[in-house]
Amino acid sequence: MHQNFYNCLVISFINHNFRLIQNRIFNMHEVHQKLTDHNLRKTAVRTQVLSMFMENKGNALTNQNIEDSVSDLDRITLYRTLKVFEKNGIIHQIFDSSGKIKYALCPDGCGQLHHHDDHAHFHCEGCDRTICVVGEVKSDISIPKTYQVKRVHLVVEGMCDSCNPENTKNKTV
User: How open is the CA angle 77-78-82, to the nearest 5 degrees?
Assistant: First the structure.
C-alpha cells in the first residue's frame, strides 16, 4: 500500500515538473518571437526580463521586482532594457500612488510608433499590486485646443479581492 502511494507521489511530481518545463519552453518561444516581432536582438538580459513580464501578464512590475528575480543584472542594463522595451511598444509605464514607477506588458499590436496603453489600472492599497484593467478609457474632458496631450494616466485605487476585508469575512463563514 505504501509503495503504491509512493509511486503515485513520484509520478505526480514528475508530471508536474514536466508541465513546468513544457510551459517554460513555450514561454521562451513566445519571448523570442516577441523580440523578433519588434526587431530586437535576443540578449540574455532581454530574454530574462521579457520572460518575467510575460509570466506576470497583466501585473505591473517595479525595477526592484525585476532586480530581485534576474541574476547578475546591473541597474544600468535594466534601465536601458526597460527603455528599449517601452520605446518599442513591449511595455508601458504606470504611475500609481505607491510612488514607484511600474511597468506592464503592452497588449498585442503596440509598436514603436503606436502604443495602445490608454487603459485604466487598478492599484491595491493593501498589497501594493497594480494590474491593467481591460477596456478603453473614454472621457469628455475639454482640453484647450492650444494644449497638446501626450498621455493620460487613470489609476483606480482600492482593495483587491485578496485584501478586501469584506471578502475575507465571506470566505470564513
Answer: 120
Distances 16 to 11, 20, 62 between C-alpha atoms, Å: 9, 6, 30
- Give kind and range of the element (H or E) at residue 148: none
The CATH number for 147's domain is 1.10.10.10
Q: What confidence tens digit (pLDDT) does each residue in 67-109 have?
A: 988 878 888 999 999 999 999 989 988 888 888 889 998 877 6
pLDDT tens per residue, range 156-170: 899 998 898 887 665
Rounded CA-CA distance 84/34 in Å is 13
Question: What pTM did the predictor assign?
Answer: 0.70
> Taking a C-beta distance cutoff of 8 angstroms, is the pair 94, 121 a contact?
yes
Q: Is 72 helix (H, G, I), strand (E, B) or coil?
A: coil
What is the domain range of residue 28?
2-172
Per the structure, how many domains does the chain have?
1
